[in-house]
Amino acid sequence: MPARELTTQQSPRKHPVGAAAVLAFLATLFCLAEPSLAYYPKKGDSAPHHGVRDARRKVIQGIDVSRWQGEIDWEKVKGAGTRFAFIKATEGGDHLDPNFRRNWAEAKRHGIPRSAYHFVWWCRSAKDQVRWIKKHIPRDPDALPPVLDVEWQNGSQCAKRISRQEALEKIEVMLKGLREHTGKKPVIYTDINFHEDILEGQYNDHPYWLRSTAAPLAKRYARDRWEFWQFTTTGRVPGITGDVDRNAFFGTEREFEAWRQGRFDIGTRTWHGGGPKTKVASRIPPATPAGLRAPKGAGGIKLKFAPPGRIPARTADNRDVERTGTVRRN
Length: 330
Hints:
alpha/beta; TIM Barrel; 8-stranded mixed barrel; two-stranded antiparallel ribbon
Protein backbone atom coordinates (compact mmCIF):
# COMPACT_ATOMS: atom_id res chain seq x y z
CA MET A 1 0.00 0.00 0.00
CA PRO A 2 1.50 3.41 -0.95
CA ALA A 3 2.18 5.79 1.90
CA ARG A 4 -0.15 8.76 2.19
CA GLU A 5 1.30 12.13 1.27
CA LEU A 6 1.51 14.77 3.98
CA THR A 7 -0.94 17.64 3.63
CA THR A 8 -0.83 21.06 5.24
CA GLN A 9 -3.03 19.67 8.03
CA GLN A 10 -0.53 16.82 8.60
CA SER A 11 2.65 18.86 8.60
CA PRO A 12 5.50 17.16 10.48
CA ARG A 13 6.23 20.45 12.26
CA LYS A 14 3.02 20.01 14.26
CA HIS A 15 4.18 16.52 15.36
CA PRO A 16 7.91 16.82 16.20
CA VAL A 17 7.88 13.77 18.47
CA GLY A 18 6.33 11.55 15.80
CA ALA A 19 8.79 12.67 13.13
CA ALA A 20 11.74 12.00 15.39
CA ALA A 21 10.37 8.54 16.19
CA VAL A 22 10.01 7.73 12.50
CA LEU A 23 13.58 8.80 11.78
CA ALA A 24 14.91 6.75 14.68
CA PHE A 25 12.94 3.72 13.51
CA LEU A 26 14.30 4.01 9.96
CA ALA A 27 17.86 4.36 11.26
CA THR A 28 17.40 1.22 13.36
CA LEU A 29 16.12 -0.72 10.34
CA PHE A 30 19.14 0.39 8.31
CA CYS A 31 21.57 -0.76 11.00
CA LEU A 32 19.85 -4.12 11.31
CA ALA A 33 19.81 -4.65 7.56
CA GLU A 34 23.46 -3.82 6.93
CA PRO A 35 25.53 -4.16 10.12
CA SER A 36 28.52 -5.23 8.02
CA LEU A 37 28.98 -1.88 6.32
CA ALA A 38 31.42 -1.00 9.09
CA TYR A 39 33.70 -3.86 7.97
CA TYR A 40 34.08 -2.73 4.39
CA PRO A 41 32.67 0.79 4.01
CA LYS A 42 34.39 1.24 0.63
CA LYS A 43 32.72 -1.79 -0.94
CA GLY A 44 29.17 -2.08 -2.17
CA ASP A 45 26.67 -3.92 -4.35
CA SER A 46 24.74 -2.57 -7.31
CA ALA A 47 21.91 -5.05 -6.65
CA PRO A 48 22.11 -6.19 -3.00
CA HIS A 49 19.95 -9.11 -1.88
CA HIS A 50 18.65 -9.48 1.67
CA GLY A 51 19.07 -13.25 1.53
CA VAL A 52 22.88 -13.04 1.64
CA ARG A 53 23.21 -10.53 4.47
CA ASP A 54 25.02 -13.10 6.63
CA ALA A 55 27.89 -13.24 4.12
CA ARG A 56 28.33 -9.48 4.27
CA ARG A 57 28.86 -9.77 8.03
CA LYS A 58 31.92 -12.00 7.65
CA VAL A 59 35.17 -10.29 8.60
CA ILE A 60 37.37 -11.95 5.95
CA GLN A 61 36.13 -11.08 2.46
CA GLY A 62 37.60 -11.15 -1.02
CA ILE A 63 36.88 -11.12 -4.75
CA ASP A 64 37.23 -13.31 -7.84
CA VAL A 65 38.24 -11.78 -11.16
CA SER A 66 38.93 -12.59 -14.80
CA ARG A 67 39.38 -10.71 -18.07
CA TRP A 68 35.84 -9.35 -17.72
CA GLN A 69 36.95 -6.95 -14.97
CA GLY A 70 39.34 -5.26 -17.39
CA GLU A 71 42.46 -3.56 -16.09
CA ILE A 72 42.35 -3.58 -12.30
CA ASP A 73 43.92 -1.00 -9.99
CA TRP A 74 45.16 -3.45 -7.35
CA GLU A 75 46.36 -0.69 -5.05
CA LYS A 76 42.79 0.56 -4.67
CA VAL A 77 41.49 -3.00 -4.36
CA LYS A 78 43.89 -3.54 -1.47
CA GLY A 79 42.94 -0.20 0.08
CA ALA A 80 39.28 -1.28 0.12
CA GLY A 81 40.18 -4.08 2.54
CA THR A 82 40.31 -7.05 0.12
CA ARG A 83 41.72 -10.04 2.02
CA PHE A 84 42.03 -12.53 -0.85
CA ALA A 85 41.51 -12.87 -4.60
CA PHE A 86 40.61 -15.86 -6.76
CA ILE A 87 42.09 -15.13 -10.20
CA LYS A 88 41.07 -16.98 -13.34
CA ALA A 89 44.05 -18.64 -15.00
CA THR A 90 43.04 -21.40 -17.40
CA GLU A 91 40.00 -22.89 -19.10
CA GLY A 92 39.66 -26.27 -20.78
CA GLY A 93 42.83 -27.40 -22.50
CA ASP A 94 43.77 -24.42 -24.66
CA HIS A 95 42.62 -21.13 -23.11
CA LEU A 96 44.66 -18.82 -20.87
CA ASP A 97 42.91 -15.77 -19.43
CA PRO A 98 44.64 -12.82 -21.13
CA ASN A 99 44.74 -10.81 -17.89
CA PHE A 100 45.95 -13.63 -15.66
CA ARG A 101 49.68 -12.89 -15.60
CA ARG A 102 49.19 -9.21 -14.87
CA ASN A 103 46.53 -9.82 -12.20
CA TRP A 104 48.69 -12.51 -10.60
CA ALA A 105 51.75 -10.28 -10.39
CA GLU A 106 49.91 -7.13 -9.29
CA ALA A 107 47.93 -8.86 -6.56
CA LYS A 108 51.18 -10.22 -5.10
CA ARG A 109 52.92 -6.84 -5.42
CA HIS A 110 50.18 -5.25 -3.30
CA GLY A 111 50.17 -7.99 -0.69
CA ILE A 112 46.82 -9.60 -1.51
CA PRO A 113 46.77 -13.40 -0.99
CA ARG A 114 45.72 -14.92 -4.31
CA SER A 115 44.69 -18.23 -5.79
CA ALA A 116 44.58 -19.34 -9.43
CA TYR A 117 41.51 -21.17 -10.70
CA HIS A 118 40.91 -23.51 -13.62
CA PHE A 119 37.53 -23.61 -15.37
CA VAL A 120 36.72 -27.20 -16.40
CA TRP A 121 35.46 -28.08 -19.87
CA TRP A 122 33.63 -31.39 -20.10
CA CYS A 123 34.41 -31.59 -23.82
CA ARG A 124 38.13 -31.98 -23.12
CA SER A 125 39.89 -34.90 -21.50
CA ALA A 126 41.08 -34.52 -17.94
CA LYS A 127 44.67 -35.29 -18.92
CA ASP A 128 44.69 -32.51 -21.54
CA GLN A 129 43.43 -30.06 -18.96
CA VAL A 130 46.01 -31.13 -16.37
CA ARG A 131 48.79 -30.58 -18.93
CA TRP A 132 47.42 -27.10 -19.65
CA ILE A 133 47.16 -26.31 -15.94
CA LYS A 134 50.77 -27.34 -15.29
CA LYS A 135 51.94 -25.21 -18.19
CA HIS A 136 50.32 -21.96 -17.05
CA ILE A 137 49.50 -21.97 -13.32
CA PRO A 138 52.62 -20.91 -11.37
CA ARG A 139 54.01 -23.07 -8.58
CA ASP A 140 54.19 -20.09 -6.25
CA PRO A 141 55.05 -21.08 -2.65
CA ASP A 142 53.24 -18.09 -1.18
CA ALA A 143 50.07 -18.55 -3.27
CA LEU A 144 46.81 -19.83 -1.83
CA PRO A 145 45.78 -23.37 -2.83
CA PRO A 146 44.38 -23.53 -6.39
CA VAL A 147 40.71 -23.84 -7.31
CA LEU A 148 38.96 -26.30 -9.61
CA ASP A 149 35.84 -24.61 -11.04
CA VAL A 150 33.25 -27.27 -11.91
CA GLU A 151 29.82 -26.35 -13.31
CA TRP A 152 27.69 -27.06 -16.35
CA GLN A 153 28.59 -24.90 -19.36
CA ASN A 154 25.06 -24.03 -20.40
CA GLY A 155 24.92 -21.83 -23.49
CA SER A 156 28.62 -22.27 -24.34
CA GLN A 157 30.35 -24.18 -27.14
CA CYS A 158 30.66 -27.07 -24.68
CA ALA A 159 27.11 -27.58 -23.46
CA LYS A 160 27.69 -31.31 -23.15
CA ARG A 161 26.40 -33.02 -19.99
CA ILE A 162 28.24 -36.16 -19.07
CA SER A 163 27.24 -38.85 -16.59
CA ARG A 164 27.87 -38.48 -12.88
CA GLN A 165 30.43 -41.26 -12.90
CA GLU A 166 32.35 -39.76 -15.82
CA ALA A 167 32.28 -36.29 -14.24
CA LEU A 168 33.62 -37.61 -10.93
CA GLU A 169 36.38 -39.51 -12.71
CA LYS A 170 37.49 -36.36 -14.53
CA ILE A 171 37.33 -34.28 -11.36
CA GLU A 172 39.45 -36.84 -9.52
CA VAL A 173 42.17 -36.68 -12.18
CA MET A 174 42.24 -32.87 -12.17
CA LEU A 175 42.21 -32.53 -8.38
CA LYS A 176 45.14 -34.92 -8.23
CA GLY A 177 46.96 -33.02 -10.99
CA LEU A 178 46.49 -29.66 -9.27
CA ARG A 179 47.69 -31.03 -5.96
CA GLU A 180 50.78 -32.65 -7.47
CA HIS A 181 51.61 -29.47 -9.37
CA THR A 182 51.18 -26.95 -6.53
CA GLY A 183 51.72 -29.17 -3.49
CA LYS A 184 48.45 -27.88 -2.00
CA LYS A 185 44.98 -29.36 -1.61
CA PRO A 186 42.68 -27.66 -4.17
CA VAL A 187 39.46 -25.81 -3.37
CA ILE A 188 36.33 -26.93 -5.26
CA TYR A 189 34.10 -24.19 -6.68
CA THR A 190 30.60 -25.08 -7.84
CA ASP A 191 27.03 -23.84 -8.15
CA ILE A 192 23.69 -25.17 -6.94
CA ASN A 193 22.76 -27.29 -9.97
CA PHE A 194 26.11 -28.99 -10.46
CA HIS A 195 26.45 -29.74 -6.76
CA GLU A 196 23.03 -31.38 -6.71
CA ASP A 197 23.69 -33.37 -9.90
CA ILE A 198 27.27 -34.48 -9.25
CA LEU A 199 28.95 -33.41 -6.03
CA GLU A 200 26.46 -34.05 -3.25
CA GLY A 201 28.21 -36.20 -0.67
CA GLN A 202 31.52 -36.18 -2.58
CA TYR A 203 34.99 -34.85 -1.68
CA ASN A 204 33.99 -33.85 1.84
CA ASP A 205 37.65 -33.57 2.82
CA HIS A 206 38.17 -30.74 0.30
CA PRO A 207 37.37 -27.08 0.92
CA TYR A 208 34.24 -25.94 -0.92
CA TRP A 209 33.59 -22.53 -2.46
CA LEU A 210 29.86 -22.26 -3.17
CA ARG A 211 27.74 -19.82 -5.10
CA SER A 212 24.41 -18.48 -3.84
CA THR A 213 23.41 -14.89 -4.56
CA ALA A 214 19.86 -14.88 -3.21
CA ALA A 215 19.67 -17.18 -0.18
CA PRO A 216 21.78 -18.64 2.65
CA LEU A 217 23.91 -21.59 1.60
CA ALA A 218 22.12 -23.89 4.05
CA LYS A 219 18.92 -23.42 2.05
CA ARG A 220 20.53 -24.25 -1.29
CA TYR A 221 23.07 -27.01 -0.59
CA ALA A 222 22.84 -30.38 1.15
CA ARG A 223 26.15 -29.86 2.93
CA ASP A 224 27.12 -29.60 6.60
CA ARG A 225 29.82 -27.00 6.02
CA TRP A 226 31.63 -24.90 3.45
CA GLU A 227 34.64 -22.62 3.41
CA PHE A 228 33.89 -19.82 0.92
CA TRP A 229 30.64 -18.19 -0.18
CA GLN A 230 30.28 -16.30 -3.47
CA PHE A 231 27.39 -14.15 -2.36
CA THR A 232 27.03 -11.60 -5.16
CA THR A 233 28.00 -11.08 -8.78
CA THR A 234 27.09 -7.38 -8.69
CA GLY A 235 29.62 -6.22 -6.14
CA ARG A 236 31.35 -2.88 -6.38
CA VAL A 237 34.97 -2.50 -5.28
CA PRO A 238 37.28 0.50 -5.72
CA GLY A 239 39.85 -0.16 -8.43
CA ILE A 240 37.45 -2.27 -10.53
CA THR A 241 35.14 -0.79 -13.14
CA GLY A 242 31.65 -2.28 -13.05
CA ASP A 243 30.46 -5.39 -11.28
CA VAL A 244 32.71 -7.94 -9.59
CA ASP A 245 32.03 -11.13 -7.64
CA ARG A 246 32.41 -10.83 -3.87
CA ASN A 247 33.16 -13.72 -1.53
CA ALA A 248 33.30 -14.44 2.20
CA PHE A 249 35.47 -16.87 4.18
CA PHE A 250 33.89 -19.03 6.87
CA GLY A 251 36.48 -19.16 9.60
CA THR A 252 38.55 -17.13 12.01
CA GLU A 253 41.54 -14.88 11.40
CA ARG A 254 43.79 -17.51 12.93
CA GLU A 255 42.39 -20.27 10.73
CA PHE A 256 42.75 -18.19 7.57
CA GLU A 257 46.37 -17.33 8.33
CA ALA A 258 47.20 -20.92 9.28
CA TRP A 259 45.56 -22.16 6.06
CA ARG A 260 47.79 -19.80 4.09
CA GLN A 261 50.83 -21.22 5.85
CA GLY A 262 49.78 -24.84 5.39
CA ARG A 263 49.27 -25.44 9.13
CA PHE A 264 45.47 -25.76 9.00
CA ASP A 265 43.36 -27.86 6.63
CA ILE A 266 40.11 -25.92 6.23
CA GLY A 267 38.50 -28.87 4.44
CA THR A 268 38.85 -31.29 7.36
CA ARG A 269 39.27 -28.66 10.09
CA THR A 270 42.50 -30.28 11.28
CA TRP A 271 45.73 -28.67 12.46
CA HIS A 272 49.22 -29.66 11.36
CA GLY A 273 51.08 -27.76 14.05
CA GLY A 274 50.54 -24.55 15.94
CA GLY A 275 46.91 -25.30 16.69
CA PRO A 276 44.94 -23.80 19.57
CA LYS A 277 46.11 -24.96 22.95
CA THR A 278 43.69 -27.11 24.93
CA LYS A 279 43.90 -28.24 28.53
CA VAL A 280 44.67 -31.91 28.98
CA ALA A 281 42.92 -33.50 31.94
CA SER A 282 45.39 -34.85 34.48
CA ARG A 283 45.25 -38.58 35.09
CA ILE A 284 46.46 -38.10 38.69
CA PRO A 285 43.49 -37.60 41.03
CA PRO A 286 43.63 -34.45 43.17
CA ALA A 287 44.95 -34.83 46.69
CA THR A 288 42.28 -35.44 49.33
CA PRO A 289 41.85 -32.83 52.07
CA ALA A 290 42.28 -35.44 54.84
CA GLY A 291 43.65 -33.88 58.07
CA LEU A 292 42.80 -30.35 56.99
CA ARG A 293 40.37 -28.09 58.71
CA ALA A 294 37.09 -26.91 57.27
CA PRO A 295 36.84 -23.23 56.29
CA LYS A 296 36.15 -20.75 59.06
CA GLY A 297 32.70 -20.19 57.64
CA ALA A 298 31.97 -23.85 58.35
CA GLY A 299 33.22 -23.65 61.95
CA GLY A 300 36.87 -24.59 61.42
CA ILE A 301 36.26 -28.16 62.55
CA LYS A 302 39.00 -30.65 61.86
CA LEU A 303 37.92 -32.98 59.05
CA LYS A 304 37.70 -36.69 59.74
CA PHE A 305 37.55 -39.38 57.08
CA ALA A 306 36.69 -43.04 57.52
CA PRO A 307 39.23 -45.50 56.12
CA PRO A 308 38.03 -47.02 52.82
CA GLY A 309 37.69 -50.47 54.37
CA ARG A 310 35.35 -49.21 57.12
CA ILE A 311 32.82 -47.43 54.89
CA PRO A 312 29.59 -49.44 55.24
CA ALA A 313 28.19 -50.73 51.96
CA ARG A 314 24.78 -49.36 51.05
CA THR A 315 22.53 -52.23 50.16
CA ALA A 316 18.83 -52.69 49.71
CA ASP A 317 18.68 -54.05 53.28
CA ASN A 318 20.33 -51.16 55.14
CA ARG A 319 19.01 -48.16 53.15
CA ASP A 320 16.88 -45.66 55.03
CA VAL A 321 14.05 -45.06 52.58
CA GLU A 322 12.85 -41.99 54.47
CA ARG A 323 16.08 -40.05 53.96
CA THR A 324 16.67 -37.93 50.90
CA GLY A 325 19.58 -39.00 48.78
CA THR A 326 18.89 -42.73 48.91
CA VAL A 327 18.48 -44.60 45.68
CA ARG A 328 14.85 -45.49 46.33
CA ARG A 329 13.98 -41.93 47.34
CA ASN A 330 15.50 -40.48 44.18
